[in-house]
Amino acid sequence: MKTKKRISKLFATSIMAVASVASSYGQSNLGSACGCTTPVASRPSVLLSSLTGFTVVTGANGGELTAGAVLTCANNYIIDQKIYIPAGQTLTINPGTVLKGRIAPLVSGAPDPTKAAALIIERGGKIMAEGSADCQIVFTAEADNLDGTFPIANKGQWGGVLLLGKATNNLLMAGNGPFVVGGTSGKLAAADGLGVIEGFATSIPQDRYGVCTAASGSTGAGGATPPAGELFSQVFDDNDNSGVMKYVSIRHAGAILSVGAEINGLTLGSVGRGTTIEHIEIVSCADDNIEFFGGTVNVKYITTLFGNDDMFDWDLGWSGKAQFLFGMKTDNTASVDSDNGFEADSDDKKIIGASNTTLRRSTPLIYNVTLLGNEKSTLLTGTAGDNSSLAAINAKELTGGEIYNSVFANFKNGLNLVQALGTRTGSSEAYHNWSSTLGNGTQILKVKCNTFVNCTTPLSVDNSTAAIVSADNTQFTTTDLNVIVAGNTLPGFDYSFAVNNTTNVFSAKNDPVPNPALTVAGCPVAPADGFFRVANYRGAFSSIAGENWLSDWSYSKVLGATKGLISCPTDLDKDGDTDVDDFQIFAPAFNTSCN
Q1: How do beta strands 118-121 and 312-315 pair?
Q2: Rounded Cα distance, 577 and 311, in Å
Q3: How deeply is 579 buried, as exposed, middle or buried, from its count of CB atoms within 10 A (0-12, 13-18, 19+)?
Q4: In the chain, is it the N or the C terminus that has fewer CB atoms within a 10 Å radius of its CB?
Q5: Which whole number is the average pLDDT over 25-35?
């Protein structure tokens, strides 16, 4: 009995050690694996506005770091206002570094959204934020002490991270401009090809993306002269390079300026394919987790957790690639704003009138996604101007694109296709781009070889089944090889979870890895083209042990939110926990040789 107690105590000690290691990677000892010896709580705070070369930009509620900057894990850096990195300058952020966004000053007891703090990489500027699998870079709220207790319910505490580039978008002044300072119309164009980031209350050059493609004197540019700081007849650069972001976690961002005008966790405006965006995590964002405003940028290994609004939102002609995307909605409560998994647009419903048959469409190529909804069936009151659906994929506003070999679970609608054109005429809406029988013949929208689990309406048109014809159902399941699974019955897979949003304690965890792996027989597989990785399964994660790409740095690991994702040598029964059951497996083998 004495020996048994000693072994049990030893086992308990090892459990605490494992928990401590997991926490240290993502929280208080961030950076310890890459030489950052000072705990986060003991690092001095430095205002980004105090760095050398900071110059105020009139009207921007912030300023530029005109000499760039190098940030290290010796300090915690406070994003105290809008901080811009101008053309020709680089912001380098070393692994293990923490940046904290300051909540805006209060007006009548609430934060003033026009003064939301954010980091903006201007056109021609660069961010070099290259963390590693065990030494990430974290952006979070100033109030987050990084011990894992800052409630995941805290959203919109600061603005977010914005990259602005010169790659292609489809903006036209006709119908999509002019941009109005502080306006809520959603019009984004400052000129043909030139946009202003949604949610900003200025029209200064630092807030713009794309280039002015209008010819000299064109009324499409708002008159005989281009906007201040711009030149006529510029050419997009689809290989534009805004830098590198790898192993970066962005938490508690997404300040909302007004309904339909918000800052996202990560905003990508006309960002080019020369930019590297990989292993990014967005946690507890108040608006879209990631939004693409045109551009050609590719993204891989992206996680979104507990956010409001859409997990991934694209519009204005985004034509990049994406692979290995994972998302979990926040819990299903009446107060939660919870929109789509994918919100897929081409023109963001601003270009009106004709069918715009020559308009550049959004045509991303996407493989291997797992998105978990919360089965929410009613939109949050007061957000209708922004939230229009509760779908895994809400395909609308002329979008094209291809989505293959993915798993979508627990959304009200699976694939929702917009058919009604409103004030537009013609047959270029998402439904017409998808349908092989009643469409426009282009089939530039393909949703094939995906598995839809517990989606009340797996296929809908205009958020209803009333307009669906038998040929639509045949195409969806038989032709396009999409699979419908009723309830939580997919082997090895569990979309359900339960969390206290204040204490961050999970009383139940999901498991997003189907086992055995779901077949891709007869389906296209991601090509080995230098970006995509060949993956012969549906969903974001392989069922083969050791091949999961979520590493110890992820906040999901820190919170213990999800089973089956992280290779854990002490979790012998593979249930997502190290507990007495694992000890019972290990005990009979204790003191045996491994040779």
Answers
A1: unpaired
A2: 27
A3: middle
A4: C
A5: 77
Q: Give the pairing of strands 54-57 and 62-65.
A: antiparallel
Q: Which residues contact 435 (CB under 8 A, 6 or more apart)?
A: 417, 443, 471, 472, 475
Residue listed under structure tokens 């089956």: 564
CA angle 486, 487, 491 (to 5 degrees): 90
Joined tokens for residue 63: 């300023």
Question: In 168-237, at which residue ranges do the beta strands (DSSP E only) sit?
Answer: 189-191, 194-196, 208-210
Helix (H, G, I), strand (E, B) or coil at 322: strand
Handedness of CA 277, 306, 142, 49 (dihedral sign): positive
The length of the chain is: 595
**CA-CA distance, 373 to 381, in Å (whole number)?**
19
Helix (H) or strand (E) holding 517: none
Q: Which helix (H) or strand (E) holds 175?
A: helix 173-176
Q: Which residues pair with 402 in a beta bridge?
A: 365, 446
Q: Which among 250, 375, 383, 389 is positioned nearest to 307, based on CA atoms?
A: 250
**Tokens representing 561?**
């939110």
Tokens 């309904």 locate to 259
The identity of residue 399, as a single letter, is T
Q: How far apart are CA 225 and CA 163, in angstroms?
A: 27
pTM (predicted TM-score): 0.90
CA angle in degrees (0–180, nearest 5) for 568-547-557: 40
If one compares 353 and 310, the residue with the highest pLDDT of the two is 310
Any idea which residue has 């689990």 for tokens? 453
* Residues 444-478 pLDDT 10s: 999 999 999 999 999 999 989 998 999 999 999 99
- Residue 545: both structure tokens together: 């042990």
* Residue 347 structure tokens: 């023109």
DSSP 377: -
Identify the CA nearest to 407 among candidates 305, 491, 314, 319: 491
Contact (CB, 8 A) for 171 and 192:
yes
Query: CA 271, 206, 315 angle in degrees (round to 5)?
Result: 35
